[in-house]
Design goal:
Blueprint: H1 27-38, H2 44-51, H3 55-67, E1 87-95, H4 100-110, E2 116-121, E3 128-134, H5 137-147, E4 154-161
Antiparallel strand pairs: 1-3, 1-4, 2-3
């Protein structure tokens, strides 16, 4: 009976997702994660129907997925345009030193800059890649010159301005190591 999967009576999620690298999630857990990634405010009764469970087992699974750290939390997705924060720049940062203490100092300082949405340590020609969101190029220039350039151990920066976000999704849905149902 290899290759034969039992047919479940559930609604199909519109996004194809591959199986996880971790083996502790079954098909119901993966389906729950998919649906909550699409809509974190989905009522448990509706979620249970979509994944093919009754309400109580579904609710228990959601609580376990939270306790086990698969679900880190729920938050509102804000509209940057409505908030006047449409300007996005990606900044390559080179440090003067990559000792553990220099990295730690930079990592700590970058947490205090609200305009920096994301900060990734990079293996390559530069040390960090920052995603910076501001209202316009003038305010970005101020943040770059007065804040980012003054962070500990910054030797230099290179800016790439985003003209348009073609794809912007906060969770991994699809691709290598993604969740699947």
């Amino acid at each position: 009976m290899t290759g034969i999967r039992p047919k479940l009576h559930r609604l199909e999620c519109p996004i194809p997702i591959k199986p996880p690298l971790v083996g502790h999630l079954d098909q119901f857990d993966r389906a729950i994660l998919k649906w909550l990634a699409l809509d974190g405010r989905l009522p448990v009764t509706e979620l249970a129907t979509k994944v093919g469970l009754s309400k109580t087992p579904c609710q228990v699974r959601v609580k376990r997925l939270q306790a086990d750290g698969y679900i880190l939390g729920f938050r509102a997705m804000l509209n940057p345009g409505k908030l006047g924060l449409e300007h996005i720049a990606f900044v390559e940062v080179r440090l003067t030193s990559t000792t553990e203490s220099a990295l730690k100092a930079f990592n700590t300082a970058v947490q205090r800059v609200p305009e920096i949405e994301q900060c990734h340590m990079i293996a390559g020609a530069f040390d960090y890649l920052l995603k910076v969101r501001t209202s316009d190029i003038r305010s970005y220039r101020e943040v770059l010159g007065e804040v980012i350039s003054a962070l500990p151990h910054v030797a230099g920066t290179s800016t790439h301005v985003s003209m348009e976000a073609v794809k912007d999704r906060a969770v991994l849905i699809g691709g290598e190591g993604a969740i699947d149902g």
